[in-house]
Automatic annotation (TrEMBL):
Top-level taxonomy: Eukaryota, Viridiplantae, Streptophyta, Embryophyta, Tracheophyta
Keyword Repeat: yes
Residue span, Myb-like domain: 5-57, 58-108
Biased composition, class Low complexity, residue ranges: 120-134
GO-annotated cellular components: nucleus
Repeat is among the record's keywords: yes
Designated name of the protein: Uncharacterized protein
Chief place where the protein resides: nucleus
Locations listed in the record: Nucleus
HTH myb-type domain residues: 5-57, 58-112
InterPro entries referenced in this protein's UniProt entry, alphabetically: EOBI/EOBII-like_plant, Myb_dom, SANT/Myb
Species the sequence originates in: Carya illinoinensis
Annotated keywords: DNA-binding, Nucleus, Repeat, Transcription, Transcription regulation
Length: 269
DNA sequence: AACATACTCAACCGCACTGTA
DNA sequence: TTACAGTGCGGTTGAGTATGT
């Protein structure tokens, strides 16, 4: 059975896509995005998948507006480092470079407008923070020092963490509140049970295997995680269990679709 | 209430860097 | 050594929403 290459999808992500991406990142880790994109059948580019994961789906993400302390820090670091957004984001756990970039743009625009109107820059609420001597300095803040890994630069999943298999903690009601994907839960269980297993495969082995098996049909023979010199779990997805997994995923899709239709006939986003 | 404007945020694009075969 | 693929970063865009007139 030959996979027909469908058109690459663009634009806003649907809940289904998020769900699939989450599942596949949980299985394979947040590396090899092109492969994740391919294997998941998302019809998205690897780049798009990565961006969605990093900016939206990552379990460590904070939601909502930046706190005044975070705003101060962004301003201070920007004045120190310039537009090194990802570097700045490293100092703000749970915040993404995109978020910070957006905040900065908004802030600058506000400032420009105030200047235009002839207001003194010091009247800007955020601006005064920069000069305040009572503000905590960058280095005194309890954030990771530069060079440490940011929360979202995980270097791949060491384990199939429950977080990565569940969903962002947004607090908002979501499709995955609906009883949960049992297949994922049972996969986790299986992983736990097999943690002491002796057959260990690196992610590269897994991907190679996927590449090999792709000619016939897409199904990796193994699912284990070996990153940074240590392997944390060993989990073999046999062809049949892989088929079962995918099948379950697609069936979940249908279920989600049905629920969404009932919930909001107009659709989301 | 209707329209205009401002704002926010998710997503895309292009380029540069890095790792690997 | 080199070419290529994958990844990360910064800039930009545009849709949706909030606010003002």
């Amino acid at each position: 059975m030959k996979m027909v290459q469908e058109e690459i999808r663009k634009g806003p992500w649907t809940e289904r896509e998020d769900f699939k991406l989450n599942c596949f990142v949980g299985l394979f880790g947040d590396r090899r995005w092109d492969n994740i994109a391919k294997v998941s059948g998302l019809n998205r580019t690897g780049k798009s998948c990565r961006l969605r994961w990093v900016n939206y789906l990552h379990p460590g993400l904070k939601r909502g507006k930046l706190t005044p302390q975070e705003e101060r820090l962004v301003l201070e670091l920007q004045s120190k480092w310039g537009n090194r957004w990802s570097r700045i984001a490293h100092r703000l756990p749970g915040r993404t470079d995109n978020e910070i970039k957006n905040y900065w743009r908004t802030h600058m625009r506000k400032q420009a407008q105030e200047k235009k109107r002839g207001l003194s820059p010091s009247s800007s609420s955020s601006n005064s923070c920069l000069t305040s001597a009572s503000n905590p300095t960058v280095d005194s803040l309890p954030f990771p020092k530069t060079g440490e890994e940011s929360f979202y630069d995980t270097g791949g999943h060491d384990t199939i963490a429950a977080d990565s298999l569940s969903f962002p903690k947004t607090g908002e009601e979501s499709f995955y509140d609906t009883g949960g994907p049992e297949i994922i839960v049972s996969a986790e269980k299986q992983i736990e049970e097999e943690k002491a297993g002796e057959n260990v495969y690196s992610m590269d082995d897994i991907w190679k295997d996927i590449a090999l098996s792709e000619e016939k049909t897409i199904k990796p023979a193994y699912c284990s995680f070996s990153e940074g010199g240590s392997t944390f779990s060993h989990h073999a997805l046999t062809s049949s269990s892989w088929e079962y997994f995918l099948d379950s995923l697609w069936r979940m899709d249908e279920e989600i679709g049905r629920r969404n239709l009932i919930k909001s006939p107009t659709g989301g986003q």
